[in-house]
Amino acid sequence: MSSPSRPPKIHDVAKRAGVSVATVSRVFSNPDIVSEKSRKAVEKAVLETGYTLNVLGRNLRQSQVGAVLALVPNLANPFFSEILAGISEVLRDAGLNLLVLDTRQVDRSSPTHGLRNYLNRSHADGIIVLDGSLDPALFQSPACPPVVQACEWNEGVPGARVLADNAEGARLAVAHLLALGHRRILHLAGPRQNSLSVSRAEGVAAALSCEGLEPVAVIEGAFTLRSGREAAAAVIAARPTAVFCDNDEMAIGLMAGLAEAGLSVPGDISLVGFDNIEMAAYAPVPLTTVRQRRAVLGQEAARLLLSQRDGDPSETRVLPVELCIRQSARPV
Amino acid sequence: MSSPSRPPKIHDVAKRAGVSVATVSRVFSNPDIVSEKSRKAVEKAVLETGYTLNVLGRNLRQSQVGAVLALVPNLANPFFSEILAGISEVLRDAGLNLLVLDTRQVDRSSPTHGLRNYLNRSHADGIIVLDGSLDPALFQSPACPPVVQACEWNEGVPGARVLADNAEGARLAVAHLLALGHRRILHLAGPRQNSLSVSRAEGVAAALSCEGLEPVAVIEGAFTLRSGREAAAAVIAARPTAVFCDNDEMAIGLMAGLAEAGLSVPGDISLVGFDNIEMAAYAPVPLTTVRQRRAVLGQEAARLLLSQRDGDPSETRVLPVELCIRQSARPV
DNA sequence: ACTGCGAATGTAACCGGTTACATTTACGCT
DNA sequence: AGCGTAAATGTAACCGGTTACATTCGCAGT
What we know:
The structure is a homodimer of 332-residue chains.
Chain A (H helix, E strand, L loop, with lengths): L9 H8 L3 H9 L6 H14 L5 H8 L4 E6 L6 H15 L3 E6 L12 H4 L7 E4 L17 E4 L9 E5 L1 H14 L5 E5 L5 H15 L7 E4 L4 H6 L1 H7 L3 E4 L2 H13 L9 E3 L16 E3 L2 H16 L6 E4 L2 E3 L8
Parallel strand pairs in A: 1-2, 1-3, 3-4, 4-5, 5-11, 6-7, 6-8, 8-9
Antiparallel strand pairs in A: 10-12
Helix pairs in contact in A: 1-2, 1-3, 5-12, 7-8
The first copy, chain A, binds a DNA duplex (30 and 30 nucleotides) through α2 and α4.
């Protein structure tokens, strides 16, 4: 449309439309306060020049980035993708972009490089932390934007939290096994220091203590398929009649490991998982598990971040979970 | 450390260190050209004031965003998470951030809103497109930054491409089935217009034509577990001895559907998938499939984008695939 | 005609860095 | 001492918008 040389600036549009730059700016940010006549003139000039707003200029002046950073422990882990989708959805409606950073890929501790650089108002307008293993000191800086923790959490980190009712979910799962008559129940847990593992262990203990029981063993896994399979030998050695797994992937891995050892699920051992990933229904034996709505969790995290940014006090929101009964657990 | 009022600016640091703002700036961007003495003074002043660089200012001046945008068809689909991880890794090493946008969540066509706003130099320094179904006209604007297509692609979109050797993968899979003696082979494909489906269909045809054969049927699915399961009835009706599925999820879904119908894999029907998702090895019957390295694909896409940004000509890179033999396919 | 007032618009400072260019400094050499 | 040159530093313009504040305009009321 115009000279092919350099991209048109707001100034060019203003000159062409016969108005000031302020008016052009207002047409973009607050069209209602400019007269019909000027507005039309500006819109025409925009079309003629092919002008597009340079967001960098606006962002600098308004001291905002227009993006929120999500810190995920492992971007390749499908568990997080649905949470991210929920986050993304809410952010988009608020006109914000989603930045994603894999905390594994980044130097977590260096005082001057690595993660610290990202935790800055000029990098993101807010941060959603899905990784409970980060140093809380990182978030103490006055330059750090508002923070919301989702899914996993860490006591030292300030700001709102949104999490599934992990203890209740584990309690439901184990209560289900107890109701089926199981007494020798094993807990295939996540990493010891992980906040999810801790609260799920509480739920397990709560359910078992009603009957005066304890787990026949607690085995530590890594939330992965492989670690589930590798736990099979140790599980068998403990001779449980049922296993509660801290997530579905370990449960499915364990299923494979038990099959290799010639044991059948649920014939020899009953299994309950956690998360209700889509694959749970398609496992060798459809998996009884605890559903947590990951998309909702992401949405809620984004909403909390937005309201925190607007000055609302930070709160902790606990999302309900429910038992999803399939075929991997049955009476002794 | 300093006044709690407003965050320190580069000017404050300069005054404190007794140097000019230019020197401070140079300490950050090019420390080698400033004298030892000044450098120490600046570093000391930075610590004392708690100064942190405001990236917005720098970005505006340098007309760069410091981020690359990835356009994914469905963020909740775990297939993409590993690609994103690969992209993220390379970008991080180049000092760039990863922005993610779910193209489902966004108005694809509006001329003034939706996607178009994002395809702008002031939004991202480059774009990686993982969605082959976008209108190529979107990328024609002179304000659009460099584009790389990965995985799926669209002929009309300019720029480099990186893709797995889909045709070869499909050919390998079907040749494997032929070698096992299968003659009645069915193709459970992706959506008809999808670029992956198209090239995989070519590979299927290439392998079959060597024997003068054609698929006994082609069924269109949606790359999902559910669509695989739902295809079971139509599959059975066509009476194949083997099925090649365009991805692992449909294969696993189909496995479930066949089991419900009382058919065994590979006893009654052999199955081959595509992708080698982690779950493939843990399916009810470990799935023979075609491996494509998704992380590598993402890395390569990011590398191509970087070199394209540096002025290198855009090229198309085809990544090798390999057959991964497990237990879901066996001789007739 | 004059005043008052709200709506519309314009001017110019400002956001916080980077960097071209000018200037100063340090130092070796005749 | 005088000069030339390279290294180090400083000054101020610049990136491209937004917005506080001042100004002008339009119109109703007396």
